[in-house]
Amino acid sequence: NESLHELDPEVAVAVDAELKRQQSTLEMIASENFAPVAVMEAQGSVLTNKYAEGYPGRRYYGGCEHVDVTEQIAIDRVKALFGAEYANVQPHSGASANQAALFAIAQPGDTILGLDLAHGGHLTHGMRLNFSGKQFNVVAYHVDDAGLVDMAEVERLAKEHRPKVIIAGWSAYPRRLDFAEFRRIADEVEAYLWVDMAHFAGLVAAGLHPNPVPYADVVTSTTHKTLGGPRGGIILARNKDFAKKLNSAVFPGFQGGPLEHVIAAKAVSFKVAASEGFKERQQRTIEGAQILAERLTSEDARAHGVNVASGGTDVHLVLVDLRDSELDGQQAEDRLHEVGITVNRNAVPNDPRPPMVTSGLRIGTPALATRGFGADDFREVADIIAETLKPSYDAEALKARVTALAEKHPLYPGL
Ligand code: PLP
């Protein structure tokens, strides 16, 4: 019964340092968030000890009566949250959910049509080195010159290649997708429509973004981005047509024992996501991103070569375009790190620089909104970022402004 500090001070010190880092800096990686203490409590519980291969009521192990309860609560809550008739809460991650979903509706060698990684897609949507790119015949669509998904190209490629699956979803795209149009195109070529809402699921849960569930054959998501829960994945469907195939793709197809402690934590996060407070937080998330986009498209920012892909945002992130700036993505990321703001460099469409350098930044507001940031705070954050990306900047002064914001909104005060 030794504590972490007693048993393993080396690890404990690093964990403590990470807590301090999260508390003292501004987290603006668009795929990150801060899980509630109750979620972390469930995730750190004795449920980590339990084997439970199978599904609630149909397990291959004894002693599952309590994890059956938590897993069933998670299933029921997530179905209600998104209006789905089918849910699987066992995928260990977003990538695991995507792998299972794809293998449930297609077979290796089939053609899949997804958004190009370099234009905001995800690895699991057909990247060359990913399982999706290695085992499927990948055709990619792109964004147009305005930075919007080119639906005319989607239709043209769908008719030309007759894909088995059309994938709608993204990791770095600041606008909403037209799910009805994707459905129409999929029907026209008799393809399945798979929507990966990993990034924007929290906005959907709050009713601030169109819900893909009524349109798609399968919907996957992570639970840790805008949704604000533990790290993990889920699969949803509007009806039970693929229920058997999806369940058996997850287990025994790709996974063994489910992470019941994480599933319990998912259940808690779905309860939070159904609350009024969650909706209000997602509103601040979108408002914050819009404030950021406005500041980074101002004349002052553009004078230094800073711009925003698609000219703005409808979601929780801004894709900063530095192709006209003296700074590349790596340098910009490093500068923001120096003043205490964490972001990730990201390729912009038609990026002339290599993927390890890039000409862009992906900046998200979910974690700061969870911390309590409102419009005035986001205006200050946006100004700090714009000032940091100018040719000359006062790192000390900017860092002091970051610290003031961090202190105004304490994170995990009891920890
Ligand atoms: N799908 C999308 C659209 C994502 O952006 C991500 C993560 O960045 C994933 C899936 C994969 O999630 P995970 O990192 O949990 O495997």
From TrEMBL:
Keywords: Amino-acid biosynthesis, Cytoplasm, One-carbon metabolism, Pyridoxal phosphate, Transferase. It comes from the Bacteria. The keyword Cytoplasm applies. It is found in: Cytoplasm. Residues 4-385 form the Serine hydroxymethyltransferase-like domain. InterPro entries: PyrdxlP-dep_Trfase, PyrdxlP-dep_Trfase_major, PyrdxlP-dep_Trfase_small, Ser_HO-MeTrfase, Ser_HO-MeTrfase-like, Ser_HO-MeTrfase_PLP_BS, SHMT-like_dom. The record marks H224 as: Plays an important role in substrate specificity. The modification N6-(pyridoxal phosphate)lysine is found at K225. One of its GO terms (biological process) is tetrahydrofolate interconversion. PANTHER family: SERINE HYDROXYMETHYLTRANSFERASE, SERINE HYDROXYMETHYLTRANSFERASE 1. Belongs to the SHMT family. Homodimer. This is Serine hydroxymethyltransferase.
